[in-house]
Structure formats: structure tokens, C-alpha cells
Design a protein that fits this description.
It is a single chain. This protein is α/β, with parallel strands linked by helices. About 25% of the residues lie in helices and about 15% in strands. The chain has ten helices and 13 strands. It is elongated.
Length: about 325
């Protein structure tokens, strides 16, 4: 299968993340899956006329395109012309090239939240009119219309994340190469369900503190960060704490709150990322599927039953009170 990777308006962080793929690395993995990388602007040697000739051949159907990967948001400004972002050496806006490639590709993949939903580059007043490939924030229809389907029958596959996990990218590409990814395998935002059916909360190392609502008050404390520090891991999709980053890490494992970067419009939370908005002392964002009354009742009981060990450790930067020793029964 032939794969073309285009970088649009973004920081290149998803490519940097992809290079952290291990066992095997991304190059060996693509080769083993039978995926030929036609061109990647950061990883390929070809430049200039070689690239423009390649793109023209793909657009003209001379070279078949099985997978188009787009990283970064698509800039439609000014006034829908796309001329804020011209593909160097072609004189044509990137959005025109992406449209052309999308209509000849068997599969189209948005790599990262910028390409999926607009992401950070669409924040604020968005003067560049940045959008995702098939979504504008949470609204269906971005550069491509809601009804778009690639030649293989799928909508744009949104591997969201800021940056996206390298394993999410490589697993998606292998599933596409093996013909094993169907529309039923995508959630309502067209994110692959193998990671989107999980919550960041799953396997979070702070879950014991969460159970007792033993909360950190400041960054670097090891308690649960939901109540005071803006963590939305109980609402955010992703298997970040199951399929850890670089073999061992995640945001919450590093002591930073989950900011829901796999979701559309995460970049505009309307409050500081490390603050939990509250109404009458109750966090506005409650865990998924949790009615407010149930949460209040559970929180009250949990706080009342918090062991001294957990309450003390929650507001410390390391374990201060170890678990008590248990003497075996004789």
C-alpha cells in the first residue's frame, strides 16, 4: 500500500511523537505491514521537483494512493482562498492539494487533533479559518463535507490527540492495511474505538485517591487532580494510562491533569487548564455517565471514609504514610 503524508498548519508534534514508536520503530513497522511511504516532508529525502512531480502523478492517477495522512489543521483563510498556506514550489494552497489527494485516496487519515477538529491552531478568533479535515470543532463538515467518503468507503479516520500516541497511528495504519477497520470501528467523532472506547481514567495511578475523593490542592502533590486542578481524565477518551507513552509515562502519571486533548474544542476550555470550574463548590465537569446527585452522595461518603494514609499522601509530593503492615493470621 502507498502512503502519502502531508503536513499542514501545525507544530509537527505528531510526527515527533510517531518517531517514538518502539518495538518495532515506525519505519520497520510500515515496511513489515507492506506500507510504502511515498513521501513525508520531515522524513523523506525527496524535495523540490521530485515532490511536485510525485504529487502531480498521484493527483492524476498515475501512482495509486492507498492512505493519505494529513497532520495539522487546514487553513481556509483568507476568505476561503486558502492562500495563507501555499505548498512551496506549487503556487497552490495546501487545502487544494489535500482535496485533490482525498478524492483519489482509498483511505484518508487525520493525524492529531488539529487535523481532526482544528485543534490549537483554530483557537481564539481563528483569523486563519483553521478547521479539521471533516470536522470544524465538534461540528461535522470541515475542509471536506460531512458526507465525504474515501474510495474505501470510510469517512476521514480521526486519530485525535495533541500529540497523538504513536501506537494509535501505527495500529490504525496496520488495520487499514489489513482491511480490518470498518465504520463500526469508529466512534461518533470517527476516532478508532480501540483507544476511544477507553477513558484516560482507566488505570490512572491516582485512582485510589479518586475513590476517596482525596484531592491534591497544588501541582506536584500526588492526590487526585479532578476536584481542584482541572483533570478531566474521567471524561476524556484514550487509553493513555493503559498503553503508556514511551513505555512508562502519561500526563497524569507525570503529575499533570488530563486536558482532554483527544476531544474537539479541548483548546477552548473557558478556564485555565489547571483549574477546576465549580458551581456551589461542585465541579462542573463530572465523570462520564455519573448523575450529579450520585456523585455528591458518593463524594460525601468517600471523603468521610478516607483513611488517614490516603488523606495525608494526597497533599504531599511523595508517599508520607506507607500502608500498614498486616500480620498473617495463625
Amino acid at each position: 500500500m502507498n502512503l502519502l503524508w502531508l503536513q499542514s498548519a501545525g507544530c509537527g508534534g505528531c510526527t515527533m511523537s510517531l518517531l517514538c514508536a518502539e518495538d518495532p520503530n515506525v519505519i520497520d513497522l510500515l515496511d513489515g505491514a507492506g506500507i510504502r511511504l511515498l513521501w513525508h516532508p520531515a522524513l523523506s529525502e525527496a524535495t523540490g521537483r521530485e515532490v511536485t512531480d510525485l504529487l502531480a502523478a498521484i493527483a492524476g492517477g498515475t501512482i495509486p494512493l492507498d492512505i493519505l495522512c494529513v497532520e495539522g489543521s487546514l487553513l481556509r483563510g483568507p476568505n476561503g482562498t486558502g492562500r495563507y498556506h501555499i505548498l512551496s514550489g506549487t503556487g497552490r494552497p495546501m487545502i487544494d492539494w489535500v482535496r485533490d489527494m482525498a478524492h483519489v485516496a482509498r483511505h484518508v487519515v487525520a493525524v492529531g487533533t488539529c487535523a481532526a477538529f482544528g485543534g490549537v491552531t483554530s483557537a481564539g478568533e481563528n483569523p486563519a479559518d483553521a478547521v479539521g479535515l471533516q470536522f470544524d470543532g465538534s461540528h461535522a463538515g470541515g475542509l471536506l463535507p460531512p458526507e465525504f467518503r474515501a474510495a474505501g468507503g470510510l469517512p476521514v479516520v480521526n486519530i485525535a490527540g495533541c500529540p497523538t500516541h504513536p501506537g494509535w497511528v501505527t495500529e490504525t495504519l496496520m488495520l487499514l492495511a489489513d482491511g480490518k477497520l470498518t465504520e463500526a470501528d469508529l466512534d461518533g467523532y470517527a476516532r478508532p474505538r480501540f483507544f476511544a472506547d477507553h477513558l484516560v481514567h482507566h488505570a490512572c495511578p491516582k485512582n485510589e485517591f479518586y475513590e476517596y475523593k482525596a484531592s491534591a490542592r497544588h501541582l506536584s502533590e500526588i492526590g487526585c487532580m479532578m476536584e481542584n486542578l482541572g483533570c478531566v481524565g474521567t471524561q476524556a477518551v484514550g487509553d493513555c494510562n493503559i498503553r503508556t507513552w514511551n513505555g512508562e509515562g502519561s500526563c497524569t502519571r507525570a503529575g499533570y491533569p488530563c486536558i482532554n486533548c483527544t476531544a474537539p474544542e479541548f483548546e477552548e476550555p473557558h478556564h485555565a487548564f489547571t483549574e477546576t470550574p465549580k458551581f456551589a463548590g461542585i465541579p462542573v465537569g463530572l465523570p462520564s455517565d455519573m448523575p450529579k446527585a450520585w456523585f455528591m452522595a458518593l463524594a460525601s461518603l468517600s471523603k468521610a471514609a478516607t483513611p488517614e494514609r490516603i488523606g495525608t499522601n494526597a497533599v504531599a509530593d511523595r508517599i508520607r504514610v506507607p500502608p500498614s503492615l498486616k500480620t498473617p493470621r495463625r
